């Protein structure tokens, strides 16, 4: 059923021209065409586009679960990662913050750290013996 929904959404998205067109709603969180457009353009096949949208939906669900479990990153965690990004690009944090798309960079850092916190929470009690390794 999920695959059918994604195919229908891709068909709808293919003929939509508005950047703010909602192509899916995941637990009351809308996914707009504009938010996935860049990634969709990277894939030439419909199957590749379906995988991209499925991954986007999975990320949203993971971030929602991390938020529900209060596993969101702290402001200092986000700032540390942003500082690392700025330094690796030979920029100061203020220069990075002046980028037009800084909001999207900060959002992606928040999402990735939230998912990482969720992964750590899920695997914290996981025990693996040497034989299994």
One letter per element, helices H and strands E, the order comes to HEEHHHHH
Helix content: 55-70%
Low-confidence stretches: none
Largest sheet at a glance?
Answer: 2 strands, antiparallel
What fraction of residues sit in β-strands? 5-15%
Total beta strand runs:
2
Q: What is the CA-CA span between the terminal residues? A: 37 Å
Shape: globular
What's the average pLDDT? 83
By secondary-structure content and strand pairing, the structural class works out as mainly alpha
Radius of gyration: 18 Å
- Tally of separate helices: 6
Strands side by side in the biggest sheet: 1-2
What is this structure's SSE topology?
Elements: H1 2-15, E1 22-26, E2 29-32, H2 33-42, H3 46-68, H4 75-88, H5 93-97, H6 102-123
Antiparallel strand pairs: 1-2
Helix pairs in contact: 1-3, 2-3, 3-6, 4-6
């Amino acid at each position: 059923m999920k695959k059918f929904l994604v195919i229908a959404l891709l068909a709808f998205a293919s003929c939509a021209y508005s950047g703010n067109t909602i192509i899916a709603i995941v637990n009351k969180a809308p996914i707009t065409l504009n938010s996935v457009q860049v990634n969709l353009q990277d894939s030439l096949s419909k199957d590749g586009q379906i995988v991209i949208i499925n991954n986007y939906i999975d990320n949203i669900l993971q971030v929602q679960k991390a938020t529900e479990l209060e596993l969101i990153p702290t402001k200092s965690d986000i700032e540390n990662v942003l500082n690392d990004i700025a330094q690796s690009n030979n920029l100061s944090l203020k220069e990075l913050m002046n980028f037009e798309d800084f909001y999207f960079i900060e959002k992606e850092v928040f999402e990735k750290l939230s998912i990482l916190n969720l992964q750590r929470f899920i695997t914290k009690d996981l025990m693996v013996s040497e034989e299994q390794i």
